[in-house]
Amino acid sequence: MVEAKKKHKKRGRHAYDKNDEGRVRLPKGNEMFGIVDTRLGMGKSRVRCADGKERLGRIPGALKRRLWVRPGNIVIIEPWEYEGDRKGNILFNYKPIQVKWLKEKGHLKDLLEAEEF
Fold first, then answer.
1. Number of other residues whose CB lies within 10 A of the CB of residue 114
2. Residues 36-64, buried b or exposed e (16+ Cβ, 10 A)?
3. Contact (Cβ atoms closer than 8 angstroms) between residue 2 and residue 82
4. pTM of whole model > 0.90?
5. pLDDT digits (tens, 9 = 90+) for 46-84
6. Strands, E assignment, the chain
7. Which domains does the chain have, with CATH numbers?
């Protein structure tokens, strides 16, 4: 009996995103960049936003199991309509190669300047 050849080689967990930044998602409309300060548990984190405010960031239920954030990560946060100065939803977490691209293109300039105080 002749064995069939394998068409695809099995790759590791992070094999696809080592050197490829792909299309980098940018904030739209009311969204903004933020840096995660601390994790508070229950899907919540303290986030310093690009507008200089510190917000309580919540990961929405649909993203809870797919979006893992750590202190120091660059994220996209969308302020709430009600209590928008204090709370918001964390929508996206950037990978290190994407953060490097954002810095090179100057998108994180205002966020990093606010961080250095």
1. 15
2. beeeeeebebbbbbbeebebebbbeeeee
3. no
4. no
5. 999 998 899 999 998 887 788 888 999 999 999 999 988
6. 32-41, 44-49, 54-58, 74-79, 87-93
7. 32-115 (2.40.50.140)
